[in-house]
Amino acid sequence: MRKQYARHASLGLCAMLAASISGCAKNPEPSAVAPRFFTAPDSAMRALPFSEAVQVGSLLFVSGQIGALPGSLTLAPGGIGPESKQAIENIRTILARHGATLKDVVKCSIFLADIREWAAFNEVYRQYFSAPYPARSAFGANGLAMGARVEVECVAAVRPAS
């Protein structure tokens, strides 16, 4: 990696990373792929200052989802279990809107208001994901939006935008 870094040091960080990821070290100027930004169809979510998802090439980045009931900013009642289920259902809905499924997910980041609820989250997670599991990170957070117990964000591999 150091040898490759030295070879591409003059390219700038973004070009170097792109060259490393795509394996195009012989061509230091990979073609740029314009990101596509997707807004949520319901007005409650559209009013928030972020895209529901962004596609760059064959990767779909789904914004963090809390356990908000569809069409509202109200959390699913009942704590970590119901909120986790609703958050993943929200992700499933977003993926479907963009031609993907949970099987296309390659990475998840989990934010928990209380890291002691990690095992309870995993019970729900296993209902939606099976081996081979996506890569995953889990973090204890000092508060989440709207008092949520959990927030989940994912990256999925999809067909490149045409």
Summarize, please.
The protein has 162 residues and is of the alpha+beta class. The chain contains 5 helices and 6 strands. The protein folds into 2 domains: 32 residues, no CATH class; 125 residues, 60s Ribosomal Protein L30, Chain: A (2-Layer Sandwich).
Helix-strand blueprint:
Blueprint: H1 2-8, H2 13-22, E1 36-38, H3 43-46, E2 53-56, E3 59-66, H4 80-97, E4 105-112, H5 118-128, E5 135-140, E6 150-157
Parallel strand pairs: 4-5
Antiparallel strand pairs: 1-2, 2-3, 3-6, 4-6
Descriptors for this entry?
60s Ribosomal Protein L30, Chain: A, 6 strands
The biggest beta sheet is recorded as: 6 strands, mixed
Count of all domains: 2
**Overall pLDDT confidence:** 84
CATH class of the largest domain: Alpha Beta
Shape: globular
| Rg computed from alpha carbons, rounded to a whole number of angstroms | 18 Å
Strand ordering within the main sheet: 1-2-3-6-4-5
Order of helices and strands: HHEHEEHEHEE
Q: Any idea what the CATH superfamily of the largest domain is called?
A: RutC-like
**Can you tell me the CATH topology of the largest domain?**
60s Ribosomal Protein L30, Chain: A
What share of residues is helical?
25-40%
Q: Low-confidence stretches at least 5 residues in length (pLDDT < 50)? A: 1-29
Polypeptide structure, described:
By secondary structure, the chain is of the alpha+beta class. It folds into 2 domains: 1-32, no CATH class; 33-157, 60s Ribosomal Protein L30, Chain: A, CATH 3.30.1330. It contains 5 helices and 6 strands; from the N terminus they run H-H-E-H-E-E-H-E-H-E-E. It has helices at residues 2-8, 13-22, 43-46, 80-97, 118-128, and strands at 36-38, 53-56, 59-66, 105-112, 135-140, 150-157. The protein has a 6-stranded mixed beta sheet with strand order 1-2-3-6-4-5, with helices on one face. A hairpin with a 2-residue loop joins strand 2 and strand 3. The protein starts with a helix and ends in a 5-residue tail after the last strand.
